[in-house]
Amino acid sequence: MIGSLDPKIPGGPLANKWTNHKDHSRLISPNNRRKFEIIIVGSGLAGGSAAATLGELGYRVKCFCYQDSPRRAHSIAAQGGINAAKNYQNDGDSVYRLFYDTIKGGDFRSREANVYRLAEVSGNIIDQCVAQGVPFAREYSGYLANRSFGGAQVSRTFYARGQTGQQLLLGCYQALCRQIAAGTVQMFPQTEMLDLVVVDGHAKGIVTRNLRTGKIDNHSGDAVVLATGGYGNVFYLSTNARGCNVTATYRAYKKGALFANPCFTQIHPTCIPHSGEYQSKLTLMSESLRNDGRVWVPKRKEDCAKSPNEIPESGRDYYLERKYPSYGNLSPRDISSRAAKEVCDEGRGVGPGGRGVYLDFTDAIERLAGENAYDIPMRIYPAVHYTMGGLWVDYNLMSNVPGLFVIGEANFSDHGANRLGASALMQGLADGYFVLPYTLPNYLAAHIGKRPPTDHPEFRKAETEVRAKTDKLLKIDGNCSLDSIHRELGMLLWDKCGMARNKAGLEEALGKIPELRTRFWREVRVPGENEDFNQSLERAGRVADFLEFAELMCIDALTRDESCGAHFREEHQTSEGEALRDDENFATVFAWQFQGNGEIARPKLHREPLHFETVHLTQRSYK
Amino acid sequence: MNFRLRVWRQKDRQSVGKLVEYEAPDIPAAASFLEMLDIVNERLLLRGEDPIAFDSDCREGICGTCALTINGEAHGPDHPGAACELYMRKFQDGDTITIEPFRVRCFPVIKDLVIDRSALDRIVQAGGFISARTGSAPEANSIPIAKPDVDLAMEAAACIGCGACAAACPNGSAMLFTAAKVSHLAQLPQGDPERGRRVLKMVRTMDGEGFGNCTNTYECEAVCPAEISASFIAKLNREYARASLRRSAGE
User: Fold this and answer.
1) Domain limits for position A556
2) CA-to-CA separations, A524 to A163, A373, A478, A480, B17, in angstroms, rounded
3) What is the CATH number of domain B118-248?
4) Which of A124, A348, A405, B66 could join B83 via S-S bond, C-beta 3.0 to 4.6 A?
5) What CATH number is attached to the domain comprising A359?
6) Do A533 and B111 touch (CB under 8 A)?
7) What tens digit of pLDDT does each residue of A72-116 get?
8) What are the residues whose beta carbons fall under 8 Å from the beta carbon of B249, sequence distance 6 or more?
């Protein structure tokens, strides 16, 4: 099934690739579209926009989400904004600049053609959202307003207060609701995908569990689209919602889909520091605050215990402004997070455990922190936020398993080794509104009438495996909580595969993860039964997958023997402590193939070399 | 801190539920309310008892998943904010805390503190959208919208769809929820073409689901985590009257 990794990038000059590709992709006529059933897993910005758009086009869509309503998908929590190369500010922005900033921000580890396309459709997204009634901020003139975000020297970010993700998702949810009412989209809330069904090498269905009743069902389709978000919760504590998980993508990986660059995980610099073991999640303060705020720590270790108001201006080290004068507090996330870690490692961190830096700004967050941010600057610390890695896809957003498409955060394609702020919303909506609706028909046109019945032996087999796994979880009968093992996994990854990694640490983690997995399958207790609303069982399945997936992350991090973007291998740094890439050996995507039947064997590595025809690879500088 | 909890336990929609008492000792004051429930659940699990089912997801007040009535108040005593934004330091050591699901006829209990709010989705499906086919949009800046209008639309659009308004209302009315969506879209020029149809269909669906009517008690506004103003209900009534009149006049 796995050939050479061909990204299927269209020919021609960079700026014309997408247009040429669209012009020569196969189409499906309106009266034939209803003959196709499309399965979409996930209802966030990527899945919701894809479901609404494909429904409008006349396909029959089945959309699944684990939440009780598609409006609650985690895209809703995005705060700051969405980038688009509109150049409304007349400050020199263009499609090329957005493309360049994104590819540079990703430390030259993403595909030129994909990123260019993303920048190219970014303006259409804003048009579409405004037409849907998304209340973007406006100037007194009535025209749209912009703000600035990390990694850019132009103001290209559109926003709706601090609730941009919510408003974009509601726009997309409302479009989805319209299709649900029209009968083109059938919505399955509180339903989790537990396996991918592959028939004759093509993705043709999924096995799901109804989270309310426990009922296991088979759904067959002409294509399967995964829009299931990222895997940040592998770290236990992250800014992700509690339910976010790797299960859909990981189980597709076990069915043959390649997992690309799993070690590329983004640590966001401005979160509220954590306070105790009971803590269930971390809360993000929008990056947009950094353009008003100034980040600092005391210059002298002795001042760290003092109240910040007692430290005079001359005693403060505005380290981002000092180290990166041109970008300052708006340096990209990987760089800002690492700089925070560095000053804390020097012993100049503030707050409990010395794991915090000050962000001075005058917006009250009294309730969250229990401190009044008017009186004293708030303490912030980096936290896991987004995952750039994901299932490998080609230019058409199709994985190596034909018929399996992966969109949004769930794929790996656009952000390289580090994502810039306000680009996740852009990518989710680009994929769902403007890319997949063009690339999916090209596949479907060649596979009309190939949808198998749900009693096909492959469905039976997958269903039997799902049931067996559920039974196995319920029978563990230990006396230890899921959270305690998940928390241990999270701490291990944070230490060894977090903001900084090294060979010895990764090898240590690779030794410990299998032990944790063994303990999980021996010691946890999963109460209740399958035929029930059983939250423990739901979580157990997800934690089991995290315990396998963590190993893949560490193997990837160990194999990528260079530093790039968010992947900082301590062995590879410049004299100034910046990430030192090795373009000769690692300007390539690592895509991993699952090996082994049941037992986890070392995955097989496939490479997709990255060809840069337009940009020159440079040492990333934000000075 | 130490608490005594009285928690609503109900096996499923058909079963009869009841309040069950639990001790919750040694709870950190800095823990959120939902983290307190996590701690209690972890202890129940280790004692071999069934954990309390409750729903939550983002845990930062934006997804609208958590739906708890705490000491008789939707989302608890710390308004405005969802239950996930409530911290234990808000309570006194030794307090007895009663935890129930949102009590609305149209939100049946699935299990313990988890409810079915699909009625709210059906209200939006009835017309809570602007029919803008993907690809059909004009250039975004071609429609200037006065800042006060868009700011007001944003106030209404901030609704997180949690359903606390209906839970707090003595009539079990979802009018604040419906009003927020109707007002958001009616406030904008893009929403104008479908303005009349939208409000009529949404109100008909809301009534059909069995939600009650507004009698101006303002409980909804008091508990709304997104601080949606009850004045939007007046706007809803005005929009409804306008659409009804225009329809009866044959427009």
Assistant:
1) 457-588
2) 38, 42, 5, 4, 29
3) 1.10.1060.10
4) B66
5) 3.90.700.10
6) yes
7) 999 999 988 999 999 999 999 999 999 999 999 999 999 999 999
8) none
